[in-house]
Amino acid sequence: MELFLLSNGKLSGEAELLGYAKEQLLEMVARRHLTSALLIPYALIRSDYDERAQELTQTLGIPVASIHHSSSPAAAVEQAECILVSGGNSWLLNQQLHENGLIVPIQRAVRERHVPYVGWSAGCNVATPSIRTTNDMPVRNSVVLPSLGLFPLQINPHYIDAHISGHMGETRDERLAEFCAVNPSESVVALHEGSLLHVCDNALRYFSPRGQGYKLFRHNTATQEHQDTLALQALVPFDCH
């Protein structure tokens, strides 16, 4: 199984989609001899699906087709060499995955056929057991359905630890601590902008071009920033050694 779970699509001032992870993604494309990729853009609300596919074609150097052109989304997933899941709204994305019958086909593609999965923002959220740690507004009257569960821990993309002057609501840290208090057996990985987790060949790696760490939130455990994956290795069922 190979996963690229990215906090976001672009860094501030960066024009190229997934540019900060381009080196790792191109290495994967070359290593796997990929000739095409399938985009699942259901999270997008105010962006064009085909424009997003074209951006990814330029980044990856291989043709990227959007799944909305397929008469059978499940068949498109079954034939895909690589699955790309765009950012946007996690609630809408997860609902569309269920309504189009794609949860099991994606799980089988990634786990059984070893099709690489690349998801950023909302696409990162749905790779976890649920979307309960998304920052997105529930724009539809959606129940919190299970998501893909490819990665065993919850992730909070776009993590920011700043306290905005004049803001009287809870900080992100406080919200994530609340999640862990309500769900004491679960852990949350908080990813700053421009960072990613990479799972490949039973190894787990963390990458940040800015040199920032990630935070791990657990109930009744002090929250710390980590630069390596040692803190995660005890929590995920991968042999990372």
Approximately how much helix is present in the residues? 25-40%
Determine and state the CATH class of the domain at 3-151 and 194-211: Alpha Beta
Uncertain runs are none
Largest sheet: 7 strands, mixed
Order of helices and strands: EHEHEHEHHEHEHEEEEEH
Gap from first CA to last CA: 16 Å
- The CATH superfamily of the domain at 3-151 and 194-211 turns out to be Class I glutamine amidotransferase (GATase) domain
Second CATH tier, the architecture of the domain at 3-151 and 194-211: 3-Layer(aba) Sandwich
Q: How do the strands of the widest beta sheet line up side by side? A: 3-2-4-5-1-8-9
Layout of strands and helices, then pairs:
Layout: E1 3-6, H1 22-32, E2 37-40, H2 49-60, E3 64-66, H3 73-79, E4 83-85, H4 90-99, H5 103-111, E5 117-120, H6 122-125, E6 154-159, H7 172-182, E7 188-192, E8 196-200, E9 203-207, E10 214-218, E11 221-226, H8 230-233
Parallel strand pairs: 1-5, 2-3, 2-4, 4-5, 6-7
Antiparallel strand pairs: 1-8, 7-10, 8-9, 10-11
Helix pairs in contact: 3-5
